[in-house]
TrEMBL record:
Protein known as: Nitrate reductase-like protein NarX
Transmembrane regions listed in the UniProt entry: 20-39, 60-80, 100-124, 144-168, 196-214
Annotated function: Does not seem to have nitrate reductase activity.
Protein location: Cell membrane
Higher taxonomy: Bacteria, Bacillati, Actinomycetota, Actinomycetes, Kitasatosporales
Cofactors named for this entry: Mo-bis(molybdopterin guanine dinucleotide); heme b
């Protein structure tokens, strides 16, 4: 009997390449992600912004931005759940592997399509609307390229393995490898067994996280809580003769 074909991988056996890809690179990316945000917040607070372009164009932004943000939020939550929560925990909670697999594929595909669609609209808007394109930096272009590559590879891996192919349970290889990084006991053998599209998706994600602190993506780690307690901003005219009526009490010019 002919043995089943092994999935195509970047490193079938763990060697120097496997150690560099699945041990060294994750720790380098994690260190750059953490230290980069600390540096950025300390030395570039004024640059810690989305550099909103809403004033230049709103119609496409009103469609693409919610589609992308809600889609990517579901994708991130799905990744956190699938990578951080062991398979034994969901089984103990009464969720079978088949039920988990079906729900993950359905929700992941829908969220992935929404994310790609929203991102496509945002990129189209940024390229075709003159003022928005003029405000786009090289850093923004590199960020969009890295983000698009990571999302596209993740969606391609999901479709190829679970819709076109016979299915692949990443919770037996990729998820334990991911947790082993944080346990400080990395096991590159687990990741070396994964199909090549999943490996490429993981590598692109590591590079994206290393690039993250130096892009506008830093705004995802902040929340405008100060708006809840800051005082109102009062605007007063410098021209005391402006208008036919006398100013109301409390609105008189000072000085």
């Amino acid at each position: 009997m002919t043995p089943p074909a092994q999935p195509l991988t970047l490193a079938a056996e763990t060697g120097t390449g496997g150690i560099l890809l699945w041990v060294a690179l994750p720790y380098v990316a994690l260190a750059v992600f953490v230290l980069g945000h600390i540096w950025r917040y300390r030395y570039d607070k004024f640059g810690w912004t989305t550099r909103s372009s809403q004033l230049y164009e709103r119609r496409l932004l009103r469609i693409g931005s919610p589609l992308f943000h809600f889609g990517i939020l579901i994708v991130l939550l799905g990744h956190i759940g699938g990578l951080a929560i062991p398979e034994s925990w969901t089984e103990a909670a009464g969720i079978s592997e088949d039920a988990y697999h079906v729900s993950a594929v359905v929700l992941g595909t829908i969220a992935g399509v929404a994310t790609v669609g929203g991102l496509a609209i945002l990129i189209y808007r940024r390229r075709t609307v003159g003022p928005v394109f003029s405000a786009t930096t090289r850093n923004d272009k590199a960020m969009y390229l890295s983000l698009t590559l990571t999302i596209a590879l993740g969606l391609a891996a999901t479709v190829a393995a679970n819709i076109v192919g016979g299915g692949y349970n990443y919770r037996e290889t990729i998820s334990p490898w991911f947790r082993s990084i944080f346990y400080l006991q990395p096991d590159p053998d687990l990741m070396s067994e994964a199909p090549v599209l999943f490996q490429l998706h993981a590598l692109s994600a590591l590079l994206l996280f290393a690039f993250w602190p130096f892009t506008r993506l830093v705004h995802m780690l902040t929340a405008p809580l100060g708006y809840l307690s800051r005082p109102y901003i009062v605007y007063r005219s410098r021209d005391t003769g402006l208008g036919a009526r006398a100013p109301r009490r409390g609105w008189e010019r000072i000085g």
